[in-house]
Amino acid sequence: MSEPILKAENLKKVFVSGKKSFTAVDDVSFELMRGQCLGIVGESGSGKSTLARMITRLVGTTEGKISLMGRNVTHVKGKELRSMYQEIQMVFQMPVESFDPRRTLGDGIGESLRNMGMSRRETERRVRELLQRCGLEPEFAGRYPHQVSGGQCQRAAIARALAVNPSILICDEATSALDVTVQKQILDLLADLKEKEQLSILMICHDLALVQYFCDEVLVMYQGKIVERGIPDEIIRHPKEEYTRRLVDSVL
User: Model's pTM, two decimal places?
Assistant: First the structure.
């Protein structure tokens, strides 16, 4: 059996403020295989977004271990962290806010390429290619975030994430701010990338119906813990936990 591309072992995150402490993620373990889409669902405050930020090192880990392609990346910094970001990228909920409003979409997409030493001409060519790959015309490179729709901006954000050819894409509520039609277009785009390029996707969301449509496996989080895991159809048809039943009822 092949090795997981991403492995989380007994992850815990405790936030401390003065004399108070809050455990946002509590003893969470999972594996993500190459070409797999793993969904993590739960209501606001369940710990799923904190988990995503731990994996991408946007917040530190209190306890546990994160392995990327067999390498321990739990506490990497500096050059090692930059190397990690070549393999793992994140797409956020509010695409417009994730871009610098003073710079064009093309500038934002090409930033990581320029940082890697790619020439200006080659960067521009690659940006056009990435935009087309994500269903946008090349002229979108010259537009600013406020000049495009939410769906178009999210496509540009996916293009930016794909610029470094990552192995893993983490989507943190990446479609929840979009209307249903645009949401499906973005999911179809991600499904195409997953199939053609064996891209592994970690889908963080609160929508079980979306997970059923898109994911191979789902983890249900509640109060920082994973309370249920399995194939989406099975969890929706036969939820074992009361919390999961409530999530299912909310979408049926």
Answer: 0.89
In the structure, how many helices (H) and strands (E) does the chain have?
Answer: 10, 10
Please spell the DSSP secondary structure of 82-131, one letter per residue: HHHTTTEEEE-S-HHHHS-TTS-HHHHHHHHHHHTT--HHHHHHHHHHHH
d(CA 120, CA 114): 7
Residue 142 is classified by DSSP as G
Question: Model confidence over 79-118: pLDDT tens digits?
Answer: 898 889 889 999 987 878 889 999 999 999 999 888 888 8
Strands 20-32 and 63-68: unpaired
**AA identity, residue 135:** G
Q: What is the rounded CA–CA span in Å between residue 26 and residue 28?
A: 6
The rounded distance, in Å, linking the Cα atoms of 69 and 50 is 21
Helices 105-115 and 120-133: angle between axes, nearest 10 degrees: 120
